[in-house]
Amino acid sequence: MKFLLAPALGLAIGCSLVVTVVLSPAARAGVVPENVMVVVNADSVPSRTLANHYCELRDIPTNNVILLDDVPKGLTIELLDFKERILMPILKTLDERGLAAQAKVIAYSAGFPAAVKIDEHTAKLDDSTAKKYQLPTASLTGLTFFYRFILADQFSYLGWESNLYARGKFDRTFRNPFSGTEAEEFDKAITEMASGDAPQAAETLKRLHGSHLTLSAVAIKSAEAYSAADDQDAALLMLKKAIAAGWSYPRYLKETPALKKLSTEPEIAAAMEGMANMPISMQGPVGFSALRGWMASGEAVPVNQGGVSYLMSCMLGAVYPNGSSIRQAVDVLDRSATCDRTYPDGEFLFSLTGDVRTTTRMPGFADALVYLAEQGKTAKITRGSLPTGKNRVNGLMLGTATFDLLTKKWSFAPGAIAENLTSLGAAYTTSSQTKLNELLHAGAVMSSGSVTEPYSLQFKFPHPMMYAYYAEGVTAIEAYYLSITSPYQTLIVGDPLCQPFARPPVDQVDMSLQSAVGADAQLVNTVRIRRSEKTASVDANPKPTKAHHVELFVNGKMMQVARPLQNYNLRFPAKLSGELEIAVAVSGNHPAEPMMRFSQSFEAPGDFAVPVLKTEFDPKESLRSVVDVQCEGADSIEIQYFADTIATVSGQKGSETIDRSVLGDGPLRLRAVAVFVGDDGNAIAKIQGKRVVVLPVEIESDVTTVQD
Hints:
The chain is 25% helix and 27% strand. The chain is an alpha+beta fold. The longest helix is centred in the first third of the chain and has 18 residues, at 79-96.
């Protein structure tokens, strides 16, 4: 089974789309609702309930919701069951719906196992140290992240640094990113630079960069070599290429003797003004894209050039005994949905005791503290297993087997993340040790824990720099995967989209629908998109980014990636009547690529009537609602819950009753889709109506689930 990761160029509902722009590279980063795929256990009412809430809170597109049948039961399942009954059906659905190119996050609702047995993979380890510390139990989210390894039945994800997207020490930027002959050529060129043969090294590195244009560090090394060879024109050209490829470390340019003079060139100096002037002891954060392949150096290349690609994954709520109730899980997501770009005041706290659970990560404290200080954030080491003051906390790093937050004096700021290094933070089969859920219940929007004994090894837990990356503006889920180099045992839980510190462009986007008859006497609907670039105040804090590119989505599907122009026109022929949901995401010119999203729906006139859906709610029947549908000329009308048809009415109108005891509580998203049939009996059009949300009733507070 293949998982296609290629740009989406066709219209989601099967017809041509005219976009009056020129494309920029398709493999872009940043995370918006169109990039999040919500996976639901179709046989679990709690799973549907949690998904119902989250999808409305975050406006997740309808086609991004995948209802899986036959989900294996139990808190821990076999690897084959995970692959064949969870992973492959998800990837197949993404391919069928044309969403593979934009998928970045697989977010599991409740009702899924937390852990997967991987004995057949750990049995293949031949290193005694790896056999000792890489135990044969993985998390659901960890294995989903490593989906390519699982599809290929490879066990190399068990390595200490198998997540190449994660950041590392700054020198890693210049690690040999190649394999085979190119790797030998790179090593030889670096040796030649060190021995004084700079001209030959410069030419080799220039040629290697020419074959891998996104590897900015290779271009930087070529610029250094040309400068050492006293060819300043060639050095300047390669430095420009490095910046075009994404180089974002101005201090390195200022502090490297061979580049210092070039950094004062007007074009280079102007580019450096837009870079984040952060310390270079650690690599900086970068936005995630599943279309990118990540190299050993931490830089990205197109997925077909030898890099390793991933899919970020999390659980929206760990609803288990010893975990959260549905009410608690919904509360976390509800709280998180209001936190984006709020820039909360608060402190980042790092707990330090004599326990190995905290001393394991102590070597990384200094880098995180310095980085956060450069961002103007307050960061402290706090003595003891928990803070004792009345702090307002943006990020909390703990290391203790058990803790009690009932009497805490401090509080989490909106959008805070927190986690704890301990053995069984996500092992829900036992009540031993405090679970990650307690941090969520106390106010955090995302946390993580291990599903089995991980040992006190830094690479299995978030590095302290996670909090610095979060403060730089990445989403919560990116912060976690940027900082864990071996996440195969880590269960990540919470809202993946939360981004309280993001600094997207402050542009405004307005949309309108115009319908006109063309020269061929055919009706054409045009959605006109007008982007106006706004200038932030010089005193703005934090300062927003400038627009780098724009992504256009129609009915949830990515159509194009375009330069940040002022005007875009999306043209639809008359046969594409019905509800059109348009989303525009403007991405900032920053390595984290923060995005501002705008969305609007239009009812486009055309050759076919648009179906109408209405609901009637009976207070005496709180779990049932009557749904009326009608559409002139339709042969039948489907009633859809997310992307699944739950009832079909024959003819132009009719009624059906929906049952919350099956579909779950929370806001139910319904839609009528009218089917028109031709003379040959085959469907000639399927026209979707407006999205209708049936309001929820109060959910119970003590419901937990377990896969029996």
